[in-house]
User: Fold these one by one.
Assistant:
Number 1:
Amino acid sequence: MLLDELLELDLGCVPHVLARLAAELDADSPTIREVAERLSADQRHGRLPLPSPLPLVPSIVRRFDATQFDDRDRELLTALSVCLDGGLDALLEFDGRSAAAIAAAPVGEHIRVHAGHSRFADPRLSIWIRATTGTAAIAGVHERLSAIFRRRGDRVSEGWHRARASLEAAPETAVELTVIARQLSEAGHPERALLLAREAAEHAVGGAREEAHLVAGASAVGAGFAAEAVAWFGGLYPHGAERRRLQALGGLFVAQAFEQGSVPEVDPRVLRPCTDDSDDWCHWTRAAALAAVLCAERGDRRGMRVWLDAVREGATRIGAEHELRDPVVALSWLIAGERDIGATVGSGPVTGGMLRALQAAMGGDVDLGLRVLASGGSGMPADADPFVPGFEHSPVVQAYRAVVEVLLLVWRGDIGLARDRLIQAALVLPVSLPLAGLGVVLARRLDLAVLGELGPYARSLTEGLPAGARIDRLVDRGIQSFLAGSFDDAAATIRLWADLGSARTTMTVPALDELALDPDGRSTPAPSIEPPEIALAQSLRVRLATAGDGRWRSECVEVREEARTLRSPFARARVETMLGTQYAIRDDHPSARIHLEHAERLFELCGATAWARTIRGRLDRLDAKEGSIVPTVDPLAACRAAWSLQLTARELEVAMYAVGGAANRDIAEMLNFSVRTVEVHLGRVFAKLDVRSRVELTVLAHRTDHHL
């Protein structure tokens, strides 16, 4: 796969950028590699737009070097290459021939005409034509096209070509181009809007130039071009007009958070409007709302509270308590991990659809949440969202909706479908941006669940994360080790993750929290957003992990009954896996086989093929006389790792020496303890593991190691 090849060459591209390169380079792998070498890391990772046209590389030169065109055909191809769209009528008027005549001419083999539209048969020819045609000739083509579109009443194309035809500054074109760019951006076409706004900025002067910078920055944010947006908005600070600086403020916060991984630390009071103008206060309040949500995404509760105070102040001044303040406060606290936020929802795709979907899922109705998201992505006109006005149709907002949909599918237990949907979204949207990189975390966990390792999509998305973004790689490594059969490495890795603070997303994703228990059987508490049954499944796994022999039977019956209420096949399979393993440790092989077979079927049902493969391996080894999942120098390594979740370090040392047959006096000498201290430690070990003697302890150790 080309994603893999580019990663190996240290030229990793996020999937939607690579998809764009493939479309513009006829999916030719050598050409894509050569172009990728000419791109900056920010361009390959989607933080800057691709250059237009793409660079002329040797493979394109070789492809068309022997191609000859007469002047008329070259002008036709040049016109096609510089048009904003491939409308056929204007192109025919430009050339003077009919569509049939063009198709019959030598140039016809290079153009595809269908249903009133035209395009290059090989899109690489567009790059070659523009690179090998002189500036004056291209300007002449633009001038002729401008006249044609003016007669046809196409303001967008007429203004674009008129500006491109001007070899000198043409300020009169800037204002209309900027207006058109804003309309395109708000209609969900930010890349074309950025193209027009960038051209407008080159021709504009004074206030018109600031307006062009503002629209270019907003278009870049909507497309996900964070570094590009920062550059455009930066041109308004510190000397731009206050109103435009306030208009740009929210977009600048978003762009900087996307680019740097964190929200700028600034006192909202310093940025307050100097006037009483309600529009200025509206822009300031909306910027504060964006900053609050961005802080919540990144786990910065202190920053979130500061910005929410600003939202409350601003909303009171402009009378937007219901439509802006309340849903933003609710969304911020929900993302931060609070469950008791009330039923407040706003309108539009974010404070309406996304908030409502998450609330439905947290209430236990994941299907309702998915229906809410589906209605927002149906193509019907979206309600205006006071939180993100003008961005309701943007790729960034669509990416938020896509990531939340994948999250809900994971919660529902549709692992295979969730991975497919995420890959589809990653090919067209900047899915690494929403919710502080949650899409990347999901891509990694889903790859592990399905493949057992990180695939090219997950690794490419990871490479595109900003330097300040945090993802819990230790958990990923622990899961990979667990699925590969190395329980001891998995337990040690997850324990290390817990020791380092248990960094995690507030939106619950598949993990191995039951391996991160302290010696008293407690897991590390953290605010989390999840449906009730995901929390239930996790608690059931913890109960099984910490149940000693004395209460195992009663716990087993209760857990088994409660597990039957789980509707998520993945969550149920995880509990069945734990049940089967614990039965196997206690030498109840028939019961172990029943639960492990249930787990295997459920994992297959939900598409978690790597998990199913792991369970099949356990079933195949269930009746083996000896062996563990992975050969190891320490014959009881898996047992040691499992017991480390229940015993202190000293208790574990004493227990392992006892299992090895060492007498209390020998253990005391080896550990420099008193014999009495060894006896106390052994007593605690017996109590925690529910055994009564060294013999029972040794039997339990070998059973545990055998089945883990």
Number 2:
Amino acid sequence: MRQELDEVDLAIIRALQKDARASFAAIARSCNVSVDTISKRFRKIEEKGVVRGTTVLLDPKGFNIDCVASFGIKADFSHVEDIMVALRKMPEIVFSTPTMGCHSIYALAIVRNVTRLSQLKEVIKAHPMVREISASIWVHDILLCPENFDLPSAKGEK
């Protein structure tokens, strides 16, 4: 269900997409409203579930982590949730989601090195409900562009 958002709500979201640490005062100035208005609007946006939180983007290299990889996992649809539960228990798995297409599950792992990646792949592959697994190592710096998530206008246009 589409949440009803107006231009002020969208301006708040756009500002926070560019910089999650943007001050409500700066956002209020750009919207010509009070800081209190921005604060209340942000709380409502969170309550609606449109924004699920703010976060810090970490650079794995800053922690001497050399390997970011994605896994494509094939399994019968009826076993996807069981595999997802197992993935959530693995500390190196930082993201996983059921998918449609070539794989049943997509997972993202951050591991110290390629040796550990290989070990993790074998652990996942050993799950009795996993039919097949493939891994891809990310070779360049991670570039996240949350500001590229194109928001519709308040009038429903894109």
Number 3:
Amino acid sequence: MATSLLQQLRSLVVVDVDCMDPDVAKRHFTPQEQFEDMTSNQALVLAEAIKPENVDLVKEAIAYVQGKGLDQDPDNFKLDVLDVITVLLGKRVLPYITGSLHAQTSPSTAYDTERTIAHAKKLVALFGEHGIPKERVCIKIPSTPESILACQYLQKIGIQTLATTLFSLPQALAASQAGCKYVAPYFNELRVHFEPSLWKEYADPAADHPMSQVILSVVAAFREIKSSTKVLPASIVTPAEVVALASFQPDHITISGVVLDQLAALPPVAEINPTPCTTDITPFLARDYTANGAQLLREAIAADVETQRKLTDALALFDSCEKKALEFLDTVL
């Protein structure tokens, strides 16, 4: 019998930790209740990197890159340090997960297939240099046409990928066709985490939230086509949203430290019944969104004003976080 809402949710869906603070993961980890994956992004890396208590980790990353003796310009040196910080932050959480550490490619490469592939390979290699095999690494990659093609290539060479900044069924189907291990549809657009006043509360998020039917359509479509790609909703603000998402029957849900703490303090709710998908998914299923350079995906995003807006804004926010992290490194170098 579950004694908390978090425990109840863990009996229904795989719970991942959307945080790079090992204390958060440790707090909600027991031999009986474990996280599978740790998800991350440029915002989460920045949040940890600037903490005074993590100064030694940052210095370790700097020394590691310096020790390679590469003849680099300052900008590339800092990018390398930031990648090593990402790896070291993930490594601290590894004891509290059973699956993969996630690391996100740079938003600056989101519309460049080759550069996205190169960054993904670099991250996987850095994890390997720190004793973490590629089987326990998943690279988060934005759901642009160019980057979905990068996922397709990376999966073929044995690198696990997750399609992130995902707001539509065509993006999800493209990711499935590319062979991604996961898709991470955002329940809330990213900006609500930076400007909380933009977040809107719904009395019944499962029924009323604008992303509910999108995520339900992804779950239904993947079930219909027997996709091996797993659905991992992200960008959650409240426990009520987690309960709503659990009713959609996804494979995983990734949850921030704040919301994990809230869920652990709340009692179980009445039975969480499945929410039905009322969207007609049939017209989408026969389309090959990755063919001809992902042309159909490009057209679908261009025709969907909200997806285009949310995707563009998320990439801009992640880019801002990456730039702030690089500026922070200027203060410690």
Number 4:
Amino acid sequence: MAHIAVVGTGRVGSALAYTLAFQHWVRCLTLTDINEKLARMTAEEICHAMAMNGYDTEIQADGKASEIEGADIIVICAGTARTPGMSRRDLAAKNAGIVKQIVVDTLDNNSHAKYFVITNPVDAMATLAEHVAEGRAEVIGTGTCLETVRFRTVLARELKVQARRIECYVGGEHGESSVPIWSMVSIEGIPLLDYLRAHKIALDFKKCEEYVRNISVAVIEGTGGTRWGPAGAFTEVLHGLVCNTGRVLAFSRSRVFEGIPIPVHVTVPGKIGTQNSFDIWSYITAEEREKIASAAHDIYETYRKIEGTV
């Protein structure tokens, strides 16, 4: 069982904390926010929910990230959120200093912790966090795990099957340069194209891709921001990380690409929570690999713009 610290208890952080509180593999949750009262009252409300449902996860709140001690995983959610009309990349300059300071403040008191970066633009921020950690901690990012569950959602609707029967992934960059990996889609183990032929279905591929890339804009316009989708998707990745499940999931880790001077965080779906570095790179098409490499260059350009400013 794990001690997970969530830094930033805004819309996504609070929803994630609530979801984590009801997981059997979470022993303790520490919530921290620049608004200390928000962190403490979020923790208090989660305690009320657990009391009603018979769970006894330890919930605590700290005023500063530097007060976190002994965490197994530090989740970085803090930062400025997107507003209507804003891209994730627009947040880079605002959030870089926040992410850097969180890593600096928590490294010494959490020597065995892994960092799980959520703050947008997540791939550039995870790259920054890894640079700041200087090899002292493992860093992974949420990458395109959210796009992946959105991909599964739209495919389930279009094909009229249960989402759990679909295996699919999105790679590349979270956001503008995400890459739906069509070559790996299967329904109950049947490759997508074979399934479409067998059931005489004409799937609109472009419509599905547009949904994956644009649905977050509609959610932000309708509700003010995403919350429950990220909480569910990120919990699955954290489960894999804590319980060493070895499942193939979409999340970002650093990778070397030709023409980029440093390793950058990009999503190539692979096994989570094991020492095995298996991923699906060799199993996807050349075109998909090319698109993911292009996304890596986009991520580096975002990172490069903020590298010298923090």
